[in-house]
Design goal:
Distance between the termini: 99 Å
Strand order of the largest sheet: 1-2-10-7-3
CATH topology of the largest domain: Cytochrome p450
Shape: globular
Keywords: Heme, Iron, Metal-binding, Monooxygenase, Oxidoreductase
Number of helices: 17
CATH class of the largest domain: Mainly Alpha
Helix content: 40-55%
Structural class: alpha+beta
GO molecular function: heme binding; iron ion binding; monooxygenase activity; oxidoreductase activity, acting on paired donors, with incorporation or reduction of molecular oxygen
Family: Belongs to the cytochrome P450 family.
Cofactor: heme
Strand content: 5-15%
Number of strands: 14
Protein name: Cytochrome P450
């Protein structure tokens, strides 16, 4: 009997060991051949290295990726495979980050990125991205693969990015920016010579603006915050601590939209009106209630968080550059000029709010001379490419708006690489609206305020990353122009 039990125990142990080995072999990352990567030592792939690179801080994912790529020295240079010790520069073209069974191929070569995203049709929006948004807005463009349904949504929403429609929205954007100015003047009167947190204020002003453009009325976020301003504050080390305003009370508003289909969609009062008018005129392309709801959610989500984050980065850059502020103020007080374009474009480049985009290969490809199979997840390091030292020079990481101006002071859009909105047919749909909002807010703020330096503890350029790269702190100390 004991022999039988021993045999059974041995068989159980052996079977368990075999099963464990099978599970382990399935979980361990499986690198694509000939693409450089860290040694594969366990099922966690590069997660431990990423944690180590973060050094206990909330460091952006792509910054950690740069450090990991740097560990490989010249081996990461897939383009020419030369053995050099400067892999942390832009000569590092592609690498592989292992975060689980399926590797992520990191690409930071500009020409190859343009070929894959613009010229070829071998990539699709990553399924991981689709799945991330499916739960909240399953019928919005951002959740869809590139199919006929997605193209239908693009056609119906297309007029919202036309010049005619955007010009009609300019008054609303300007009103939102001036509302923020009024609020900040009141806060500055209370705080005096102390800086105050601007993060939530910019967020609320941006929310008011994009909701107004989308459905035709603002939420009243800034008005609510203005009404709730205290007369006193707690201060320490030059920083004023003002209680954050409560969200505005919920509002019920019936939106009556005419469906006669008369007039152009670009004559609509808001994006909701425009979509409904377009539907009425092209009845066969009706989105339905859920489709309209999710498209509006996409506009609000995509147009609020990223825009407000860019503005938060911009006021931080301002505090360290009084010369740029003075030049911009002098010019925007007269008319929109090339230097405003330069300031906004440089902020989009340096902030790297969307530092990477994810795609999936829908057929086998050869990337930088190396075969990569269908289904592989690709990550394009847009932020790294926008700060490529071989293109911009040694000061590529610095915020210097004049790099976008010619010697004659003319704005040069092709001065160098910058990809804040991605590339290809799945690039940011609302980029024209985003740029218009940012330019308008910057012009209004620059006319009204001089942004003074803030204390070191809240003036650093530390960042953290959620879906987008955000500043850890955003405080302002406002001065008035004479």
């Amino acid at each position: 009997m004991s022999n039988i039990m021993s045999t059974t125990a041995l068989a159980t142990i052996f079977g368990s060991a075999v099963l464990a080995q099978i599970i382990y072999s399935r979980l361990i990352p499986k690198p694509v051949k000939n693409i450089p990567h860290n040694p594969v030592t366990n099922i966690w792939g590069d997660i431990p290295a990423l944690v180590k690179a973060s050094n206990g801080k909330k460091k952006p994912f792509m910054d950690c990726v740069v450090e990991i790529i740097g560990m490989h020295d010249g081996i990461c240079q897939v383009g020419d495979m030369t053995q050099e010790n400067n892999a942390t520069t832009s000569s590092t073209l592609t690498s592989k980050i292992l975060l689980g069974p399926d590797p992520l191929i990191i690409i930071s070569n500009i020409k190859e990125t343009e070929r894959l995203l613009i010229k070829n049709k071998t990539t699709e929006l990553s399924k991981r991205v689709n799945q991330g948004f499916e739960f909240v807005m399953p019928e919005g463009q951002i959740s869809m693969p590139t199919n006929e349904v997605w193209r239908k949504h693009r056609r119906i929403a297309g007029p919202s990015m036309s010049r005619r429609y955007l010009e009609r929205m300019l008054g609303r954007i300007d009103a939102s920016a001036n509302n923020l100015v009024k609020f900040w003047r009141a806060k500055a009167d209370i705080t005096g010579s102390h800086c105050f947190e601007a993060d939530l204020d910019i967020h609320l002003a941006s929310m008011d603006n994009i909701v107004n453009i989308t459905v035709g009325f603002p939420l009243g976020c800034i008005d609510s915050a203005y009404a709730a301003l205290p007369t006193e504050f707690i201060q320490s080390d030059g920083i004023a601590h003002i209680a954050r305003p409560r969200p505005p009370p919920s509002r019920e508003q019936e939106i009556i939209v005419g469906k006669q289909g008369n007039g152009l969609a670009t004559d609509a009062d808001c994006i909701l009106d425009m979509v409904v008018q377009r539907e009425a005129r092209e009845g066969t392309e009706a989105l339905g209630e859920a489709g309209i709801r999710d498209e509006l959610m996409t506009f609000i989500f995509g147009g609020q968080d990223t825009t407000s984050t860019v503005l938060r980065w911009l006021v931080k850059y301002f505090t360290n550059d009084p010369e740029t502020q003075q030049r911009l103020h002098d010019e925007v007080c007269r008319v929109f000029v090339p230097f405003l374009e330069a300031v906004v474009t440089e902020t989009l480049r340096c902030a790297g709010v969307g530092s990477q985009i994810s795609r999936e290969l829908i057929q086998d490809e050869v990337i930088l001379g190396r075969p990569v199979p269908k289904g592989t997840q690709l990550v394009f390091a847009m932020g790294m490419m926008s700060r490529d030292k071989s293109e911009w020079g040694p000061d590529a990481d610095e915020w210097r708006p004049t790099r976008w101006l010619t010697h004659d002071g003319i704005f040069d859009r092709s001065a160098g690489p910058s990809f804040p909105f991605g590339l290809g047919h799945r690039s940011c749909f609302g980029q024209r609206l985003a740029v218009l909002q940012i330019k308008t807010f910057v012009a209004v703020l620059s006319r009204s305020f001089f942004f003074k330096p803030v204390p070191t503890e809240v003036g650093s350029m530390e960042a953290f990353e959620t879906l987008i790269k955000q500043p850890k702190h955003c405080y302002v100390l406002l001065g008035r122009w004479e």
